[in-house]
């Protein structure tokens, strides 16, 4: 089986996501709301229902309840990973138990619109003697990786809302799609302003460490010719955000520049930097799916809503979460959002 989500599976997921997103955006009627809350009720809702099949909003395992539980759980995620005792994380076990109130494996397998990767995962686990509890754990990991897309959506919209020029250029680019009723993945890939905005937001908000196990003794040479022995059995953590914020690669690295990635090549010490932005590390199989979902979300918001941040509303990246793939904001920001028309025009992606 291929490691990346691609081909017919990718298209099926993206098309399923388009339907769920359409439902979530159509249901959304508040005009004054936090940007993060908006993202939770729209893109996270749509992703959740794409992964598990359309959920009953009153069932214990539903998008908003899971979003709230994840908010709490992620605060302590690094400590859990480091193996600190539970007593330092009050309430964490109750939150985990709540997140485990999931539909049975049998029910998920019977849902027509449950994603193929969850179904395959469940079948694989059960065929190899794993338990219902293992299936629940696997489901939570799938949710965790998909949660990154929601976190990134917040930053893309936040940076866009603070940069009128970026919003204008993106609106013009999206306007060119106005004669289409559905998009192909190629249509989405051709949106260069959108791609640059997404890459720039990812550059700024990534907090990831890539951890690798060393399989043989290796001499590592730094650019200033220092040599280090990395021993077999060691673990190495690489930190892409150090590249993302390197002033020798990116001028004014802490500033959001919406067009930074349009037809640009980046250099360090006279040499081309091949991968200047690595928010997905090197082995994330969900990269293509996540980027398509994220871009479809932005396209649908920009084309259907007038949005503005309320006066004085700002936030920062929460640096206490470093190690998470995408950093969350320190606080939500309030915005005003109005539909441009009664019936939203839904731009989905179908081929
Ligand atoms: C914006 C969204 C996402 C971001 C920023 C992100 C980022 C990452 C990063 C940094 C890694 C570690 C890569 C490395 O060590 O080289 C990773 C691994 C992984 N991601 Fe993603 N990811 C995202 C969305 C997704 C989605 C949607 C899926 C599944 C549909 C997914 C599935 C996975 C899996 C299964 C791994 C573990 C791969 C392995 O260990 O072999 N990710 N992701």
From TrEMBL:
Q: Where does heme bind?
A: 284
- Which PANTHER family does the entry mention? CYTOCHROME P450, CYTOCHROME P450 FAMILY 7
Q: Which GO terms describe its biological process?
A: bile acid biosynthetic process; cholesterol homeostasis
Q: What is this protein called?
A: DgyrCDS4559
Q: Which cofactor does it need?
A: heme
Gene3D superfamilies tied to this protein: Cytochrome P450
Q: Which family does it belong to?
A: Belongs to the cytochrome P450 family.
* InterPro entries with a match to the protein in the record: CYP450_sterol_14alpha_dmase, Cyt_P450, Cyt_P450_E_grp-IV, Cyt_P450_sf
Sorted alphabetically, which keywords does the UniProt record give? Answer: Heme, Iron, Lipid metabolism, Metal-binding, Steroid metabolism
Which Pfam family, any one, appears in the UniProt record?
A: p450
Give this protein's Gene Ontology molecular function annotations: heme binding; iron ion binding; oxidoreductase activity, acting on paired donors, with incorporation or reduction of molecular oxygen; steroid hydroxylase activity
Query: Which superkingdom heads the taxonomic lineage of this protein's source?
Result: Eukaryota
């Amino acid at each position: 089986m291929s490691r990346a989500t691609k081909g017919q599976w990718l298209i099926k997921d993206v098309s399923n996501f388009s339907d769920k997103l359409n439902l979530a955006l159509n249901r959304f009627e508040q005009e004054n709301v936090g940007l993060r809350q908006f993202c939770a009720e729209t893109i996270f809702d749509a992703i959740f229902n794409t992964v598990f099949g359309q959920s009953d909003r009153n069932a214990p395992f539903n998008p908003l309840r899971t979003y709230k539980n994840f908010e709490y759980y992620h605060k302590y995620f690094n400590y859990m990973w480091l193996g600190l005792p539970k007593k330092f994380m009050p309430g964490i076990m109750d939150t985990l138990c709540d997140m485990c109130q999931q539909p049975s494996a049998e029910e998920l397998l019977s849902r027509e619109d449950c994603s193929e990767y969850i179904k395959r995962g469940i079948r694989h686990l059960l065929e190899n003697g794993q338990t219902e509890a293992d299936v629940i754990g696997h489901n939570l990991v799938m949710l965790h990786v998909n949660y990154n897309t929601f976190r990134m959506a917040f930053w893309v919209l936040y940076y866009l809302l603070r940069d009128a020029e970026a919003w204008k250029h993106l609106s013009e680019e999206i306007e060119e799609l106005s004669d289409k009723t559905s998009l192909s993945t190629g249509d989405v890939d051709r949106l260069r302003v959108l791609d640059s905005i997404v890459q720039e937001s990812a550059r700024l908000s990534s907090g990831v460490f890539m951890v690798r196990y060393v399989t043989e003794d290796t001499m590592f040479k730094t650019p200033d010719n220092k040599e280090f022995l990395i021993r077999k059995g060691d673990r190495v953590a690489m930190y892409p955000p150090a590249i993302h914020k390197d002033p020798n690669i990116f001028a004014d690295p802490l500033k959001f520049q919406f067009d930074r990635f349009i037809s640009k090549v980046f250099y360090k010490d006279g040499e081309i930097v091949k991968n200047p932005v690595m928010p997905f590390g090197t082995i994330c199989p969900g990269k293509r799916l996540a980027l398509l979902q994220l871009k479809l979300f932005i396209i649908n918001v920009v084309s259907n809503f007038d949005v503005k941040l309320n006066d004085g509303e700002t936030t920062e990246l929460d640096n206490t979460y470093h190690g998470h793939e995408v950093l969350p904001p320190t606080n939500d920001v309030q915005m005003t959002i109005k539909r441009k028309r009664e019936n939203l025009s839904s731009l989905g992606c179908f081929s």
